[in-house]
Amino acid sequence: MSIINNAAKGSNIEALYLLDRTITQFSLKNPDKYLPEDKLILITAPNNLFEGDEKDDSGSFKRLVNPEKKVRETLAFWGANGLWDVSKEGVKSHSILDNSDQLPKRLLKLIASKEYDLLNGNDIEPFLRFLTLFLCIDEITFVGQQILDGKKAGELVEKLVADDLVNNAMSLNSNERPFFFSYAYLLGFLEQIDKRKYFVDPTRAIRIFLPDIFKDKKPLYFGEFLSRLNACLPVFDEGEYRLLVEDKMIRDVDDWSPDKGIRLSASLSIAIERLCRERRIVCDLGSDSKNRYYLTLPNGMEKIISNIQYLEG
Fold first, then answer.
1. What is the per-residue pLDDT across 275-311, written as a single tens digit (0 to 9) for each?
2. DSSP secondary structure letter of residue 149
């Protein structure tokens, strides 16, 4: 079951943070030891934490079992997916340098390290399908100025996604949308502009991948940069998942015209521009460049690039 479904084992971000903070702090103090699961549950889900306001026949407060269930399920799901080192002895961090402040980075790299059946999988795949879809759509970025919220997300899915896919668990129903937004924001693909209101902007996610992309510390043609970015996670322009979504998910509508090749999507363009302004990267147009890429920026701004260089590394 999908991580953006409340009934799914990996859906609860609050439980994820609570577990990760407890595990990483324990491992920092006890680098060679595993934290036994029963002790971990006792720390993160103490009995008095889950007592409600109602009493049972004996006069004791009734336990609210769902929060404890979420903690156990989150531990099982993300432990099995490799977020922590899990053994029969218990659980510990992969590195004593791991900490909960780095959770978005570690989680994104973990998700990016796996292969997915994008169109049919029902685990992390539904999140990736809708993430890829929204990265395609210029209007819900700072360029298009249309806010992405629960209502807008539902409208876009109904408008753009082929009917047979919507009918086959691709509707992104109202219960799933808060979990999608929470994970997309956590992983750096959305920026929040108000409560439950967002623009699509993958700047923070791309920033995480920059050291890997530029591991040889050399400038790149932008086409090579884009290939390496999609080798990390192929949801961006010209990436494998992006092409699958554009080809297989999106119905043939008059106002859908994905620009392939030289004109970059608004979501990627905004990220490139922000990273330039942060002085993380520098982009220019080489005089001898055959392939030029046009950024889609606010207020009709025009910027053409062909080369990119990482300034931190």
1. 999 999 999 988 776 788 999 998 888 899 999 999 9
2. -
